[in-house]
User: What shape does this take?
Amino acid sequence: MLGCVRIATVRQMAQVITGEGSDGRSYVRRAMVELDALGLAETNGKDGKHQIWNLTPAGQKALADGNELPARPKAGTGAKGVRAGFGPHAVAVTDTILAYIDTVLGGRREYLTDWQVEVNHAIKETGLSFNADAVLAVPTKTSEVRLFELDNGTMSRAHLAKEVWDYERYAGHRVWEGARGTIGGTYPFWQRRRYTRSKTFPRLHVVLAGKAEHLLDNRLQALTAAVQGITIAVWANTLPRLQRGEPWYEIGVDDPHRRRSRYPEPVGR
Assistant: This one.
């Protein structure tokens, strides 16, 4: 689990590995003390009163050596983020992943290994670079992944809206391709260089957390207004609603034709 989500509390780990209705926190706590003694896991901060755990580099190597997960050579342990004060945000991302598994994926824990966190999306030519908080590699009929962005109540509304629009800017960038001497053509950057098995740009799921529910509802309404007219598929929800299995709000619809007209075409040879 720590190899996938990087950061988790004992409560979250017990939620995954113990049966429904049982409390396995004591068992997990003892196991983490043992892993700590072996130098495979460590704690670098707290979320309230709860310690936040992550693998050490040795723990990551042991996991990789055991071929338990697909190779993830650039993945960090998460320790720096916790020490820098981003522990609560990362814990909320883990809560989002667990809630999505429980309420959308039918509680099937095997889907846990299909997640990655802090996945960079960058276009060198334009300088655009951002990290998706989580990416789920469980294909739909049209896309190979689902993207997740979480706001733990720490961003301004304007900043949150900008982060959502960054996904459209990423989706709108096109590259010119064609052999020398031919007319060639332009193609979506994401479809040629990143999500090559997808027919449509992956849906973005925005999850709001970190505040009282009525305040989260206010932020959801503000975000809906701020991204009006966006040309990628965007679904939004609050973390409490997601944990209760309540439906998502569709606040953006994929429209590749309108998106293409919005962004300039690259110049060919």
